[in-house]
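Researcher: Quick test of sequence recovery. Tokens follow.
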């Protein structure tokens, strides 16, 4: 996700949005407001150069265009990767907590039984 356009003029913003979308470059407006104006970002970083060139030259032919279906597949694949990452992070967190609990329990047992052995 990269910022490609900022403006305070609504017509310019809509024109940039339409131009990029029609050319096969998926765009979005970040939810966090900017002091500079309305911000337009692209989803796919590899389309950055094409997006900038298209905004400067309306006749530019986009080499990295994607269809709506292709973009949906890309988003679905990214969602699966993110889910795996979250699951892995959760698993690591649980393993870490179990290890600490085991260490504390073992330390407590040693502390209780050690005086009896001496």
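Model:
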């Amino acid at each position: 996700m990269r910022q490609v356009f900022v403006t305070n003029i609504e017509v310019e913003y809509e024109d940039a949005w339409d131009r990029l979308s029609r050319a096969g470059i998926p765009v979005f407006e970040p939810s966090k407001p900017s002091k500079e104006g309305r911000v337009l970002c692209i989803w796919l970083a590899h389309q950055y150069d094409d997006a900038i060139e298209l905004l400067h030259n309306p006749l530019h032919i986009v080499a990295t265009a994607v269809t709506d279906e292709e973009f949906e597949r890309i988003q679905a694949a990214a969602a699966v990767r993110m889910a795996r990452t979250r699951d892995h992070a959760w698993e690591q967190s649980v393993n870490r907590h179990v290890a600490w609990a085991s260490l504390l329990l073992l330390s407590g047992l040693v502390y209780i039984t050690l005086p009896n052995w001496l």
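The domain at 2-117 is CATH 3.30.70.1530 (Alpha-Beta Plaits).
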